[in-house]
Design goal:
Structural class: mainly alpha
Oligomer: single chain
Largest sheet: 3 strands, antiparallel
Number of domains: 1
Shape: globular
Radius of gyration: 21 Å
Order of helices and strands: HHHHEEEHHHHHHHHHH
Helix content: over 70%
Length: 373
């Protein structure tokens, strides 16, 4: 039954105020996630000797279902509730991220995960969208509170940066630093401070290169492929070439069987092999559509908090997608970062849904006009 514009129920108000085009695009990405999971995960499960070839499929179907529910449920919330949820989520995830340093599970030389009740969680994934909203709130309040609010935002970012460097997770730090700098730029803060942040970022990158062996190795292998093992990138590039324009067909890819992270970091290469350039461009277009439409909807917005929070959420969403796809295409050094809604990973997909649910809630047009915020 169609919902009438006169429907004053929560569902009715939500349907007529939410950005249905962005919602549809996000649901399309979730659909791509199901398809790519079917294509990439059975071979990985078989290679690691899992009890069932459908192990990753069953898990990710569960995670994607939760993610869809989380995104829709949060998109219903008024702006004040989104802000409170982000504040609570930020401090809980920050404490859990700090806990990984002593209680975390070490994988590939990094401590980023916690085992809780039989589930492995990466708390920094949830800290990412929550920080964008909390930082936006503080920077928006700087107009009335002055440097106290801005100083508080910078202090919280320093705590986040310290925790991520200790894990270490430089890719996550780069994304969150980019989000914070974008918000500082939008709010109109002194350009000298923005430049200072840029210089600090460059110096931090140089310091990471000389102090973190895995970070140095990735940069060296990108600049000089003969400097180390580039196995996954090499196979990924072959997969794109093998797929051509239209791909070899669903389930017909052979190079995906050689990719250890075919279901996660290199799922874009699987899309390229089995569905070709056509699907790769379609996925890229959907990501671009979500980011550009979100930014365009902010043009008439007067609430600085909504502008800053939405800018932060869109920046991290688009940047995360870019890093994953560019890594698979060997345009940047490899980084273990998931493709939103498409790569395998419970923490990642639910955290992205959290961020996009907040975005949908913040950009609901009627909220600002009727005072529902």
């Amino acid at each position: 039954m169609a919902l009438s514009r006169a429907d004053t129920s929560v569902l009715g108000r939500w349907w007529w105020t939410v950005d249905r085009w962005t919602l549809a695009a996000l649901l399309a990405l979730i659909g791509f996630g199901y398809v790519m999971l079917l294509a990439a995960s059975p071979g990985v499960a078989e290679r690691i000797g899992a009890s069932s070839r459908d192990l990753f499929i069953l898990k990710q179907v569960f995670f994607l279902a939760i993610a869809t529910g989380v995104m829709v449920a949060i998109s219903v919330l008024p702006v004040k509730q989104v802000r409170r949820l982000a504040l609570l989520g930020f401090f809980v995830s920050l404490l859990m991220t700090a806990a990984t340093l002593s209680m975390g599970v070490e994988i590939k030389g990094a401590r980023r995960w916690l085992h809780l009740a039989g589930v492995t969680i990466q708390p920094s994934e949830f800290m990412k969208p929550c920080f964008a909203v909390v930082a936006a709130w503080l920077l928006a309040e700087a107009r009335s509170l002055g440097w106290r609010a801005t100083g508080a935002a910078i202090f919280l970012f320093a705590l986040v940066a310290g925790a991520l460097v200790k894990q270490p997770d430089m890719g996550m730090l780069i994304v969150m630093a980019s989000v914070f700098c974008a918000q500082l730029f939008v709010v109109g803060i002194n350009l000298m401070l923005v430049a200072g942040c840029g210089v600090a970022g460059v110096l931090g990158g140089i310091g990471a290169y000389f102090t973190l062996p895995h970070f140095q190795s990735r940069i060296d292998r990108f600049l000089d492929p003969s400097a180390g093992d580039n196995y996954q990138v090499t196979i990924a590039m072959e997969a794109f070439g093998h797929g051509g324009m239209l791909g070899v067909g669903p389930g017909e890819g052979r190079l995906k069987a050689l990719l250890p992270d075919a279901h996660a970091d290199f799922v874009y290469a699987v899309a390229g092999e089995e569905f070709g350039l056509a699907l790769c461009l379609l996925i890229l277009t959907v990501f671009g559509f979500i980011v550009l439409r979100g930014l365009l909807r902010l043009l008439g917005e007067k609430d600085m908090f909504i502008i800053l929070a939405s800018t932060g959420l869109l920046t991290q969403f688009g940047l995360q997608a870019f890093i994953n796809m560019a890594s698979a295409l060997h345009l940047i050094p490899t980084k273990g970062m998931t493709l939103p809604f498409i790569s395998y990973g419970g923490s990642s997909v639910v955290a992205v849904a959290l961020g996009m649910g907040m975005l949908l809630a913040l950009t609901r047009r009627r909220l600002a006009r009727t005072g529902e915020a």
